[in-house]
Design goal:
Shape: globular
Number of strands: 18
CATH architecture of the largest domain: 3-Layer(aba) Sandwich
Helix content: 40-55%
Number of helices: 21
């Protein structure tokens, strides 16, 4: 919702809305001492394609201030503005009320209320909430232009200088990560080219979809199993992959298939209620967006699956287990591995939310956990051999001890373009206290939060969002991630010598793989 609001209104450094009580009518765009009035009613009709208010007709008749201002936008930007103005912020009344009452919804409205202020500079969070509630009683779907027109305050200032500052914070975040990469490059690490992965070291394995009946769910749990195409070594663990929030099993299927072809028995677990179908339903306004409240149920899913494997209820064998997770799946893996969150999360969240809520989006989830009743860590699984975390987080959950309490090796992977779980804040601090010398921290240059995911053609819209969100060629990054994961799994053999820190290359992608000592040296620089 906030993305739609901010994207549609980012037209200048200041906007002032002047309106009679009860309904906003005029939008004044203020640049220094110049004000350009835009009639919100006209803007509403223009956004819906009223031919009498077309930009071309208005300019042909001499051009109003509104037409001149909109004429400064490129045609594609004007089309995008129309879409954003008309786009439903909320479609479902029940969902809308739940969102307004939720912790995350309150945080987002609070951020927006600080940008959209009264004439005296006070927050409009209360007016926003009241206006949205009223609109939900009157309409099945509420758009951005509906909300702008309905705001009751006579004069409203939209502080787009605040938006510019938020954008500046994002730029600073990326600059800091680029500076960190330059420091890594200056450390002179040994270089190695990752061998391109040609498909498999062995024949394709057997892939099957199963469902697992579990006591805590009404419907069976979807499970995908990738069996090795050839007999694996008896001393190898089996692998359990856990998708992130809004993720599907098939998005990690490329990794499961490739590891199975290398001889690893691999299982991918899907979590109904917080998978892609749940995310799609929330975007369409049919249900509240899944958040941190799903973590307890996800842990129960993992607990039930591990128990089923031990009891012979899954056709998967191995000497122990390695947990692998993307984003929230990585947090799930740590809690399933028995790592207990440190006390004082509420206090840390009060400081963090004021400081960097929208430049580190994982804080929204971490700080929702107290209200969602932070689930306790599970007893450590018998035979746990390692944990792999792709673009995961936990700076507020484990701020001091990090992964010190994890008795097995860990692989943490982050991307330099990740603004959802920034690696300097969310992975480095977790990694530094590790105790096992086989643990590795990897930073992928040009990698994003979405780099580990391989989307089906129907999900391909994600790859049109630009490199800042998707990062460099995802399949090239995935080839490198596969090599890193394979090397890490091989290192779990206690007889294997520890690998040195190194700078890796694959199809134009660079990554830095750091052992604990080198990571601490990098932090000191």
């Amino acid at each position: 919702m906030v993305t739609k609001l901010l994207g549609a209104l980012a037209l200048s450094s200041w906007l002032v809305v002047a309106a009679p009580a009860g309904a906003a009518e005029v939008l004044h765009i203020q640049l220094e001492h110049l004000q350009i009035p835009i009639n919100l009613r006209h803007l509403e009709r223009w956004s819906h394609g009223d031919p009498h208010l077309s930009l071309e007709a208005d300019l042909a008749n001499g051009g109003s201030d509104q037409a001149i201002w909109l004429g400064l936008l490129k045609p594609a930007s004007r089309r995008e503005l129309k879409v954003l103005l008309r786009a439903p912020l909320l479609r479902d009344r029940s969902f809308g009320r739940q969102l307004l009452d939720s912790w995350a919804g309150g945080q987002l409205l609070g951020e927006l209320g600080e940008l959209l202020t009264t004439e005296a500079g006070q927050s409009t969070t209360g007016q926003l909430r009241a206006s949205l509630r009223q609109l939900l009683l009157e309409k099945r779907a509420v758009s951005l232009i509906d909300l702008l027109v309905a705001l009751p305050e006579p004069h409203l200032n939209l502080r787009l200088d605040g938006l510019l500052e938020l954008a500046a914070q994002w730029r600073r975040q990326l600059r800091q990560q680029r500076h960190a990469l330059r420091e890594l490059a200056a450390m002179g690490l040994p270089q190695r080219r990752v061998t391109p992965f040609q498909g498999a070291d062995g024949p394709p394995g057997h892939h099957q979809h199963l469902t697992l009946v579990v006591p805590h769910r009404r419907h069976p749990l979807p499970v995908e199993i990738w069996a090795p195409g050839r007999p694996g070594r008896a001393d190898r663990p089996w692998l359990l992959l856990l998708p992130g929030l809004g993720g599907n099993a098939d998005q990690l299927g490329w990794l499961a298939s490739a590891l199975a072809q290398q001889g690893w028995s691999t299982v991918v677990l899907q979590h109904p209620g917080s998978d892609a179908a749940a995310l799609k339903a929330s975007l369409e306004g049919q249900r509240p967006p899944p958040g941190a409240e799903v973590l307890a149920e996800r842990l129960e899913d993992v607990k039930a699956l591990l128990a089923a494997q031990r009891a012979g209820g899954l056709p998967v064998q191995g000497d122990g287990v390695v947990l692998l997770g993307h984003s929230l799946g990585g947090v799930t893996a740590l809690l399933a591995a028995g790592l207990k969150p440190e006390p004082g999360l509420d206090r840390r969240c009060e400081r963090a939310v004021d400081r960097q809520l929208l430049t580190n989006l994982s804080l929204l989830l971490q700080c929702q956990l107290p209200a969602a009743a932070l689930p306790p860590a599970l007893p450590r699984p018998k035979g746990l051999r390692g944990v792999v975390m792709f673009n995961s987080f936990g700076s507020l959950l484990w701020p001091d001890r990090g992964l010190r309490g994890l008795p097995v090796p860990a692989l943490l992977v982050g991307g330099s373009l990740d603004l959802v779980t920034p690696p300097r804040q969310e992975q480095l601090g977790l990694f530094l206290p590790v105790v096992d010398p086989r643990s590795r921290l990897v930073l992928v240059e040009g990698g994003s939060h979405f780099s580990p995911l391989r989307l089906s053609p129907g999900d391909g819209a994600l790859f049109r969002l630009g490199s800042d969100l998707v990062g460099v060629d995802p399949e090239a990054v995935q080839g490198l991630l596969l090599g890193l994961t394979s090397d890490f799994l091989a290192s779990l053999d206690l007889a294997a010598p520890p690998r040195p820190s190194q700078r890796l290359f694959h199809r134009g992608v660079t990554a830095y793989e750091l052992d604990p000592t080198t990571a601490a040296h990098w932090r000191s620089r």
